[in-house]
Structure formats: C-alpha cells, structure tokens
Amino acid sequence: MEYETLRLVPPGVSMHVTRIPHTADTEERLRHMVDLLPAAAELLAHARVSALCFGCTASGFIQEDAGADARLAAAVAAQTGIPTVTTSQALVEALRHLGARRVAVASPYEPWLNDYLKRYLERSGFAVTGIAGFGTQEHARCSPEETIALARRVVTPEAEAVLISCTNFRTASLWRLLGLAGVGDPIPGAGRLLAQARA
Predict the structure, then answer these.
(1) Positions of E strands within the chain
(2) What is the pLDDT of residue 144?
(3) Which residues of the chain are under the pLDDT cut of 70?
(4) 175: closest CA among 165, 163, 187?
C-alpha cells in the first residue's frame, strides 16, 4: 500500500505510515488488528495528519455487521480528532460514487476470505457478478500483470465495475483518504475514480 500511495499522491501531499503486526490471514488475527488500531492511530495523530486510513480491507469485511468498519472509523476519529476511513468503507463509498451496483471482484484471497468479502458487498447493497482469488496469503507477491489477468477473468458483461480488493495487492484507498484530507485535485492516469476532482 505504501508504494502505490506514495507514487500517486499529488505534489505537496505527504504520507505517514505505522504498522500493526499481521503475519497470517486468520479470522482471529484479522479481528485482533482492530483491537490494535487505536494505539496505531494515536501514533499517527502525533504527526498532525489531515486524515487517517486503516489499511486492512479484510479486517473490515469479516465483521458480522456490514456497518462495523464505519463505526470503527468514527470511533478512531472521535479518539484522535482526525477524519478516518477504513479500506472496506472506502471501497463501498467509491463504488457508490461511481454508481456501480453490479461488481466483479478480483483478490489475492483464499476462498473462505472471498466468501466474507462477497457477503460484505451484498450486505452493502451490491450484486457480485463474479469473484475469484489467487488463494494465497502472500498478497504482495502477486504481480500487476497477474492481477490484470485475474480481473479480466472475473469481469462479465453485466458487471458495472471491477473491484480489486486488498491493500497489499497494489491497490489503494487513496481516493477517500485524499477526500477526507481536503485534497481534491484530479490524479491523471490513475483510473476513473482518482481522475475526478474530490470534495
């Protein structure tokens, strides 16, 4: 996530990062990351950032309630005084912004995690027209070329958008993060969503 975000941020925008330990995709570990978020957010707040993003997609979409990640973001914002978004929340907002209701999904995830993602999207009001993953926990090893091929494999004529999920999969929550930070300039060459001005 850091590589892509640093590459895409407009001139004059800085990015500050801290990490939460994560070494395996299990329900227990993904849920535990949520418990560690407040301390990590507090560290970033010391840098007086304009917006915060919790960059773990799966930690948001595995929750039983589709609104849990939005409440988590609101709690962190109340704690730090900084507008906050989760990646799962950002992808839902981005799809709604684009007016897409029927979505094809490509991910690096194992089947059980894709099942959670599909459920989350459906509970958020989307129809999933197709979903496929690489079945790996080593998300960053998937090359952009492999990712493009996977996305092409899942897309169907009825899909209105292709969602490439996972912040460690060379994709980003940058659109919503910049909007929260008040950075509205379009970013050319970064896809339709980022090419638009943000409010």
Answers:
(1) 52-54, 84-86, 102-107, 127-133, 161-164
(2) 79
(3) 139, 169-171, 199
(4) 187
User: Which sequence spans correspond to the domains of the chain?
Assistant: 2-182
Q: Which of 146, 142, 183 is nearest to 166 (CA)?
A: 142
pTM here? 0.89
* Greatest Cα-to-Cα distance within the chain, rounded to the nearest angstrom: 47
Decide if 2 contacts 15 (C-beta within 8 A). Answer: yes
The tokens describing 53, both together, are 């993003």
Mean model confidence pLDDT for the chain? 90
Nearest CA to 25 among 133, 150, 177, 125?
133
SS3 55: coil
2-182 adopts what CATH topology?
Rossmann fold (3.40.50)
Closest among 6, 36, 10 to 21, alpha carbons compared: 36
